[in-house]
Specification:
The protein is an alpha+beta fold. The protein has helices spanning 14-19, 24-40, 55-68, 110-113, 147-154, and strands at 73-82, 85-92, 104-105, 121-131, 134-144, 159-167, 173-181, 184-185, 190-193. The protein starts with 13 loop residues before the first helix and ends in a 10-residue tail after the last strand.
Length: 203
Amino acid sequence: MKTREIYDGCRTDNDVYLTNGIDPNKADNIHYQFSKICRRLSVNPNDIDMGKLNSEEKHNISVALVRGFQELLYAKAGSRRIGRTTVNQYTNIHTGEHGISEYEISSHSLVRRMGSEALTLVLALPWWYDTRDGRRYALNTILPVTKNQVAQALSSSAVSESLGDRVAPNGDLVRVTRPKVGSLILGPERQQKSPPQQMSKSR
């Protein structure tokens, strides 16, 4: 909505988008789709009072998007050098171990141009393109998310990964598990007292 007032129905100057931290490659289409929705609903877009989102609203939107698009979650898996630049590599938390494992944030992404070194979890759209060096796999339309947001969104679908039995400080034998969604660990290890093992009597 920061650029709505200067949108002329076709486009807005790219510098205005960049000043407001908005990707110019996507913003014009967003304005167009917003106008189209308003026309369908017979609503004047200028009558919609949409103030700046507060931190809680941003958090809730991120949680809702993760819940609805968990198959588009990517976690940082490493990095590589391209000239003088270090580029992060990401894997899909559900298919990374079985499919393509070297996605990079697109060089056209505003997130990458503004610095993406600290991003460890993102919700993103994957795509590919061919170069002289072979096929490259990239992520676009990036939404940085936190492990806390992912845990809030997907805790009900997490599975308990068994880490085996251990002896607790008090001498009890405990079974250790940790919650995971795909390859992503959502929380700390959990311990539960192991059931007693029945000894078979020799005859």
